[in-house]
Each structure stands twice: as structure tokens, then as C-alpha cells.
Amino acid sequence: MPTVSVKRDLLFQALGRTYTDEEFNELCFEFGLELDEITSEKDIISKEKGEDRAKGASDTVLYKIDVPANRYDLLCLEGLVRGLQVFKERISLPRYEKIIPAEGEGQKLIITEKTVQVRPHAVAAVLRDITFTKERYDSFIDLQEKLHQNICRRRALVAIGTHDLDTISGPFTYTAKAPSEIKFKPLNQSQEYTASQIMDLYRTDSHLRHYLHLIENKPRYPVIYDSNGVVLSMPPIINGDHTKISVNTKNVFIECTGTDITKAKIVLDIIVTMFSEYCEKPFSVEAVEVIYPNGKTHICPELAYRKEKVKPELINKKIGISETPSSLAKLLTRMCLKSHVIGNGNNIEIEIPPTRADIIHACDIVEDAAIAYGYNNIQMAIPKTYTIANQLPLNKLTELLRLDLAAAGFTEALTFALCSQEDVADKLGMDISATKAVRIANPKTAEFQVARTTLLPGLLKTIAANRKMPLPLKLFEISDVVVKDPNTGSAFFPGRCAEVFAKGQSIGKLGVLHPDVITKFELSMPCSAVEINIEPFV
Amino acid sequence: MSPGVAELLLQRLEREAAAPGAGICSLEAAAALGLDHQALVGAVKSLQALGEVIEAEPRAATRWELSPEGTEVLRDGSPEVRLFRSLPAEGLPQADAMKLPGGSVGFSKAMANKWLRLEKGAPGGPRVFRAVSGVQDTVQEALRRLHQGETEAVPERERNDLKRRKLLLEVTLKSYWIRKGSAFSTAVARQETELTPEMITTGSWRQLPFKPYNFAALGLAPAAGHLHPLLKVRSELRQIFLEMGFTEMPTQNFVESSFWNFDALFQPQQHPARDQHDTFFLQDPAEAAELPPGYTAKVKKVHSHGGYGSQGYKYDWKLEEARRNLLRTHTTAASARMLYRLAQQERFSPVKYFSIDRVFRNESLDATHLAEFHQVEGVVADRGLTLGHLMGILRQFFTKLGITQLRFKPAYNPYTEPSMEVFSYHEGLKKWVEVGNSGIFRPEMLLPMGLPENISVLAWGLSLER
User: Fold this and answer.
1) CA–CA distance, B407 with B432 (Å, rounded to integer)
2) Cβ B250–A414 below 8 Å, yes or no?
3) Across-strand partners of A161?
4) Which domains does chain B have, with CATH numbers?
5) What does the longest C-alpha to C-alpha distance in chain A come to?
6) Nearest CA in chain A to B307
7) ipTM > 0.85?
8) Cβ contact (<8 Å) for B418 and A448?
9) A353-395 confidence digits (pLDDT tens)
10) Secondary structure of A95-142 in the HEC alphabet?
11) What is the pLDDT of residues A338-352, one digit of tens each?
């Protein structure tokens, strides 16, 4: 779940009232958020680097709020406040307006066909006459980072660039060039670098080095220029220093580029809806004309409002309540889904704003109605579903065997299904290729290389970890192993082992373990074992 | 208990402490009897267990003993005096002086006592000379006094000094002051520990004294087998589901395809959970062999274009991605398989399914995170089910677990909508803790399977380890 960190007092100021921590916790619970932590900058530094380094850090109380992963409109203070205020019916959802400038006056973004090979899509918009304060500016930067981490999938799908429009002039061109042909001064650097040099420059940067691979091996890197050849950005790596925005910036040019056009549009919509609040004309966004390689044009941002019709009975039936259509419409409006009753009062028309890209089916609307109603207000009911239960025969047999084995004096172990290659091969005196074990592609440690083909290594490791316990140690385990093919092995002492047959079928082996196996598991006492497959008995 | 020692002690008490109030010291008694003090203490303790036979008052005395180094000093003199006496009249270079008997310890002590003089500017380097004509070995004298037991002759400060120099050891001696008790007798009554068959048949138990139980001792653990505690919880939950009419789903496959684990559940291919970081993907076998073709096409469509009343996710759905094998991250994959099988039936019949089995997450291990854990899952599929029904069945389920105070919180899962997190009040922690996750499966998951539109499927899950 993404976490948004907001200054508590700023939050309360925007909400127009204060809350105790418990009250705010309750509000979050009701709405579907989680107040994960109450801390301060000082606390954070104290925990990470020790109390000395925390001296002088801010004491301002921070609320860390967990937000559902599909609610991009709640990833910043502005969005949280707006959502909560509408939920509490203190404001109504603002209407986001796309302003299309007069012919010849608007900004244009031209996409060349050279981007097709690397990151073909781009959308853009302008926030006109905006007023930033330090807090708003920080929030603006933070939101971009949050979106990058979440919906943008760490910039792989979409990268965001924001620029001071007054430092550049359109029309803008989004193209791709060979690394040696791109040269500019990156954000916060003091000199110009070519793109190849930039790759090297940021190879050790703790933040940016994770994105280099997204374009590094391509023949051409994406780059955005203005009409005078000034570089706005080289997405998804870094913006140019020339266009950097500050608290004093009044006009912002926002571009989103990447490999997924749907997500690029959603991201642009989120940024402009959240921060157009601070424009001279609040909640208005200036459109940009995007021109495709084939000459087609598209006006950005989308800022689309979608209308859906949902029957009140459906909502009532799915939740298990019986509200009137108008009261359901009111509930939905509280969730930023402006609704009203239409027809003969037997239908509800819902307007889905551009901030709610998470609404993709009527069931999403049903959930929002339930949240506004209050989950804990819903009456519980018992389903009338009549069924006779059946046990899975294998599990039934397992339960019977477990009890009898414990009664016979054996202690049950529960061991990991993942283990090292040696555990199922070398240590058991077998060749790894003969075991036909299932291999893991991305184990975090050597202990998770393969899935166990036999239960024996797990039990032997358990005994090794319990060497200090008094003897005898009698263990058992009944569980699944993972095999591509049944295997044969020489884990046993020659002449002191036997194959077990049931109804003419081989089901396993028993015997004294080979001394080599015992030693490889760091044991020293003689050990006997039996392993059988119980599936034939089911 | 050794009757011999106890009896000897009782006899000695009778002799030496006949007068009322008189007593004997355990240390003296042990010495007089030629016994190890500990053996006597053992006898004291066993006599104490018999009741009021003796009274034993614990005492502690401190004694000063010479350490091995101290014994050396007593014999040869203190290091500083030895060094002083070995220093020739003409003095020695400092380095050589430190090598004299007494060494560097003696040197620094002698310097501190101002017995030596160091001339720094001497030719050939700093040179050590005697500063006084003669010295007294007070340290040796003090040790002799203490060794002879004249503790008061040596002031405390000097004693502590010697202790710091590790020449003296302060030894605490624990002893007992033993007196006759109210039930004193020289005969040690032997106490029985067990009732024997002979005692029963002869009736001799009526005359014999029995030793009282020592409740401070640990008993002998019986030889027994044991069931694993976590698996006992599993059995309990299995029982609860069966009591509620839920049928057990087959889950004996740790290996699953991305298709059943994610795509069939309407979890998009770009979802973070499908990352290397969270999921164990397989190197071998890397891909699933067969996926149901007609169904796969429907899943592709709903992800990329929508349909079934949905906008879809609008991205390019790739079959190769769905083919990738992994270790299942949830048993919901098994539930999906069962629901698909249900949908292939001629006529729909309502079902209640459950499973409790192992799932895998590619996490780094720490105190609260495992890479393998057990997921508990319940599923109800029927007509006309509501969110209220889900809450109702959760209440029934958790009540059987002894959890009665429940609250529900809106949540998000890619495959359920509405979704709810289930919270319960923990009396010990005095706060609400999450006990499970639940929801109603999305139509984008159920309809491509072929389930009728008016069917709702409720589902919930929790981890066994919690």
C-alpha cells in the first residue's frame, strides 16, 4: 500500500478543523485509509541515524497515511483533503475544466516517429498562473515521485517531467536521438553532459541508477526540445536544469511520456486535477495539442467525465441494504461520484470524474456506495446456501496418520518446502540432474534454490538444529514434495534398506541412512528413516 | 541422603550442644569429623526436610586469603621492594631497570612511593637511581598479618589496595549455626519415598513416615509424541469449515502458472505483485504447458479491452507472461480453478469451498515475515449473495475461533470489489488488529469463466501463522 506523509497541522488547516489522533484514525478507518504512523522528521532521523543526527530536525507532527493502491487521487495532501471533505459533505467535488486556447495561442507537442522504438507515447498540459508556496511545491514534487513509484511502475511505463514554461518556448518536439547527439545540463548540475556521460554520471546515484536500464541499451534515447533547441528532459532519467521549477514558477508545462498511453493519460489527469487548485482560475487546465507522426492531433489532457447508469436495486441487492434511489445518489456523490436519480426514479446516473480511473465496472460503484453507507452499518445476514461438506480424501488420510504417528511417540515437524540444491542432491548422495527438482529463478538466498523433492533433508536439518535435546529424537512430517519425475536415490546404508510395496506398487523406501548423508547434515548419531507416498492409499 | 553423616552430626550435636540454646558451627563440625563441608551441608539440608529435628541458621563470614601472587609476595617480597633492592648504586637505564625482578609493576609502584628517581637527561637515555637509602616492605608485612588471621591489624584501605593488586582475595564462607530442634533425636528416621506392594499387603504403611513432596523439583517428562502447534491450528480450522458445510479443495500443487495465479483473477500483468521481488518465478520448468485456450482468449479480452460491463485495464495482454510458472502466492489460484470447473457444469449448483495450504512470497526473512506460510481460504458461490452475507458468514466463522468483536474496513484487492479487511479487538494489546481479508469476486473474473451473471462469489482469507 502506498504511504503518503502529510504534516498534521497543514492537513487539519485544509480540512477546516482539528481532530484527536483517535478521531482521525476513525475517519481513516471509515473511508478505507489507514493512519499507519504518527511521527516527525526528528523521530524518523532518530530511528535511522541515531539521536545525535536528529538534533535540529523538525518536530512538526507528520501523519503517515496508507492509501489503497488503486486510488491515485489520494496520493497527496490536496487529494486526501478533497476526498475527505466531499465525503463529509463539507464541499462538493470541484469541476475540472479543460481550457482550449484560441487558435495559434496554445502550446503544441510534436512527436516524431523516432520515439516508436523506445518510448512512443506522450501527453502534455499547462497549469496557468499557479501560485506555489513551499508546502505546495514540496507536495507537487512528492506526488510525482509517488506516481512514479506506483502506477508508473518505477518509470518503466510512464515518466513525468514538469517545467517552468516561462523559460522555454513552444512548439515542443518529443523525439529520440543517438546518445552522443544529446547534450544538456541536467537538473542541479553545473555543466553540460552528453547523454552517454549522463548515464555514467548517475550510475552511482542511489536514486537514478535504477532507471538507467530503461533506455541505456537502445540506439536512440528519448528527448524533448523546445523551439530553440533547449532540452526540457531526457525521459525517464532526468530533466534539464534550464527548465527547473521553483516556488516562484507561475506557469508549468507538464509532459508524461512512456510505453503505456492509458497510464500516461491517467497520470497527467491526476497531476493537473490535484494542483490546478492553485491556479488563478482554480481547477482549470490549459490544453496542449499533441501532434502524432502520422499528422493526427489529440488535445490533452483527457479530463474526461464518463456517465454510467446503475439501477438502485442492483446496488441495494449487492450490498444487502434498502436505500431509496435519492439516498443512494447522495451516498455516491459523497464518494466524488456525482449522481442523481433519472427516469421514473428507477435509475441513477453517475458521473465519473477524471480523478477516479479506478472505477471500471459497476461493482466499483457498488463498493463506493457501501463505503459511504458505512460497512459497519450494514446488517449481517447468514447465506441460505445449503451444502454438505466433503473432505479431500488425501487430507483425511493425512489427519488419521498424523494422530497415529503422534500416538506412537513421534513428534511432528513442519519444514520449509524450499531448500538448497545440496540438500536434495549432494547431501543425499545423488546427482542434481537425477533429482529432477523444480528450480527457482530468483531466490533471495541459496536456501531457496529448489523446491524439495523429498521430506528427508528438512527432517535431518531439524534434528541437526536440535542436537542438544536428549535422545532419542523421533520426528515425522506428512506434507507435499515437488517432483518433475519420481526419483531414485542412494541415501541409505547398503544392505540396511528396503523398498516398501503396497498392493504390488512401490510407494517408498525405508532403512538406515548412509553415514555420508548423516555427516553431510552435520549429525553424528545413527539415523533411520522411512519415506512413503500416501496418495495410493486415498 | 547419607544416614552416616546425618547421624554423626546428630550425635555431635547431642554431645557438644547439650545445653539449651547452644549450637555448633558447621565448619568446625566438618573439620572435627574429618568431612568435606559440603557433605555436612547436605546432611543439614536433609535433616531440615524431616521437620523440627534441627535448627540451622545460615551464616556468612568473610575471610581474607592470599592469592597465588600474594603467596609469592609473602615468600619473596613485594615487586617494588625486590626491584629497589636489585638496583645497583650507579643506577640503570630505564629499559634495563624494568627488566629487574619486580618488573614494570614493581617499577611503577616504586616510583609512586618515591623510592626511585628518574634522570631524564642522563647520557645514554633516562636513568633510574635510588632516591632513598632503605625501604620497608609494608606489603609483605600486611600479607603476613592477614595470613596469620590478624585481620584487624591491617586497615581496610590497605586491605582493599591489596585486593586491587590481586594479592588478596576476599572469600565468603557460608556456614550454618546448628542447634537442636524441638523434635530432636539422634536417630535418623528413614523416610519412605514410595508406597510399595509389600507395604500394602503387610499393612506396614501404617507405621512408616513418608517423605513430603518437593514441589520445587521438576517432574520427569513422560515419553510422548507431539503434534506440531501450527498444524493443530490447521486441524481446528479444518474442523470449523467442515462444521459450516464447506468442502475441501484440492491444493496439492505448489507450482502454478501466472495465468491461474494472477490473470484469471483479473490481476493485471503490470501489477507490482507480479514483480521479481514478491513472487518466486521458476527457472525450470519455466512455462506452463497447457492453458484452456477458449478461456485464455476471454481473459485476454477482458484485461485489454474490457467487456462484461467493464472498461478493462486497456493494456497489451501477453500470453507468454501468463505462461510463466511460479510458486503460488495465494491459494486463491486453486479457488479460481474450482470456480472454473464449477462453471463448466451443465447446471449451476451453489457451493461452499475451503482450503488451508502453503503459499510462497519472495520476501527477506525477519521476525515477522516468512517466505512460506499457510493461507486459509473460504469461498461461497450462490445466487443473491450480498456484502451483508459476507459479514454474516465471517461473524459465524470467527465466532467459532473465539473471536467475537469484529469491525470491517474498506480495502483494495485486484480481484474483489467490494473488499473488506476484518479487524478484531485484541484484549492483550488493547487495540484493533487485522485478522483477515475478504471480498466479493469481480465480474471480470467470474464471467469469462462462464459463471451465470446472477451468481455472486464471496471469499475470505487469513494466514494461519497469524
Assistant:
1) 9
2) no
3) A255
4) 3-66+170-207 (3.30.1370.240), 79-136 (1.10.10.2330), 233-463 (3.30.930.10)
5) 95
6) A361
7) yes
8) no
9) 999 999 999 999 999 999 999 999 999 999 999 999 999 999 9
10) CCEEECCCCCCCEEEEECHHHHHCCCEEEEEEECCECCCHHHHHHHHH
11) 999 998 888 999 999
